[in-house]
Recover the amino acids of this structure.
């Protein structure tokens, strides 16, 4: 399957190899990039141990104003629907920082707030 995603970097591979040695379940994308298996419990000790190997984040790409506005409306809508912890998007990139919120909160969002997600993300 073709992908526009670049192949994994040596840093990504080293970081995920470290996590794997620490007992973290790793899955691979269609284009071979290693990722943490989010269906498994979070292992804070492993992530802290491997943090020095974590590659620097990619430089964020600015979103157009319509995307920023849509992301802001989505965040406000989800909070109004009872997801009080849901963060505001980045005002430049429109991205949600998933470090704001625990892995348990993100899992619960997808499990317990399906109706809110459908209401607040009608185009998805």
């Amino acid at each position: 399957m073709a992908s526009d995603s670049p192949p994994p970097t040596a840093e990504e591979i080293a970081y995920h190899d470290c996590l794997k040695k620490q007992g973290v379940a790793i899955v691979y994308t269609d284009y071979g990039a290693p990722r943490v298996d989010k269906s498994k419990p979070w292992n804070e000790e492993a992530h802290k141990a491997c943090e020095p190997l974590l590659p620097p984040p990619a430089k964020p790409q600015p979103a157009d104003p319509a995307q920023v506005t849509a992301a802001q409306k989505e965040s406000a809508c989800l909070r109004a629907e009872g997801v009080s912890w849901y963060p505001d998007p980045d005002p430049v990139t429109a991205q949600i920082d998933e470090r704001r919120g625990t892995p348990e909160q993100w899992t619960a969002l997808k499990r317990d707030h399906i109706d809110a997600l459908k209401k607040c993300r009608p185009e998805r």
Observations:
- The longest strand covers residues 26-28.
